[in-house]
Amino acid sequence: MSNYARFLFINALVGALLGCIFVAGLLYADMGGVGSLVMKSEQKLLILAIIFSSTAVNVGLMYMTTAILLATDDPGK
Question: What DSSP string describes the chain?
Fold first, then answer.
């Protein structure tokens, strides 16, 4: 794997992890009653999968894009 591909993968992974932490915090804090609404639902697993995956993908892509825009010519430095 090239340095640039590794750079992109690591940044996307970090962003996805931050997105999952953000959603977990929102659900735990029960912002707007969303956490209790999800936990009372019959389809908890499906709802959680959709919320976590969509947020992880979006935040991961935003984090990776920011890393690309702020990168120097050599990502290894």
Answer: --HHHHHHHHHHHHHHHHHHHHHHHHHHHTGGGHHHHHHHSTTHHHHHHHHHHHHHHHHHHHHHHHHHHH--S-TT-
Q: pTM value?
A: 0.83
Determine the Cα–Cα distance for residues 70 and 77; give it in Å rounded to an integer: 13
As a whole number of Å, the end-to-end CA separation of the chain is 17
* Rounded Cα–Cα distance for residues 36 and 27 (Å): 8
- Residue by residue, pLDDT tens for the chain (77 residues) are 788 899 999 999 999 999 999 999 999 999 999 999 999 999 999 999 999 999 999 999 999 999 999 887 665 65
